[in-house]
Amino acid sequence: DGQGVVQSFTKAAELYTMAAELGHVSAMYNLGNSYQIGQGVAQSFKKAAELYTMAAERGDVGAMFNLGLLYQEGKGVVQSFKKAVDLFTMAAEQGEVNAMYNLGCLYRDGQGVAQSFKEAVELFTMAAEQGHVDAMGGLGFLFIKGQGIDQSDELAREWWTKAANEGYETAIKNLKILDEQEATTTATSTTTLTPTTTCSS
Fold it and tell me: Is 57 left (phi over 0), alpha (psi -120 to 50) or beta?
């Protein structure tokens, strides 16, 4: 972090390596991050996946989530939505909000798991209530479509407004479209509304 010393990602990676070899779990995770983004070491998703695996097996929640992302995207590992689901589930059960959202996306899209809008609603709700903006946007879209939950323009508006207040562009656009539709007709058309993107970091 360049605190008390001249910043050196290379030196940080060397120290993380030594600590990881001694079994320090956070060092495994941090070194995995270094390899994932190529900071202080040559970028290697494969090496990042190996380190995240070691840390995840020792209970590191951040490593579970990051490893899940690598499986989801097929970076450094053979793509496997099922493994991503397993890892996101473990992390979500330990309170990792990003994992709740990403797991919700996989349920919504039926990737690595049987499609379930109901599960997506539950996971998005848990994440949204903890301030996850993408989850607020995704929840709003499920309300507007009536997927996994009773259709409600009012609740869609409520969640999109919360997301919009955080600067979430998709929610801002959807609120404008909702306003225009409500001004012209009582029957809401959802065709021009933008869904949230697929899960990401």
Answer: alpha
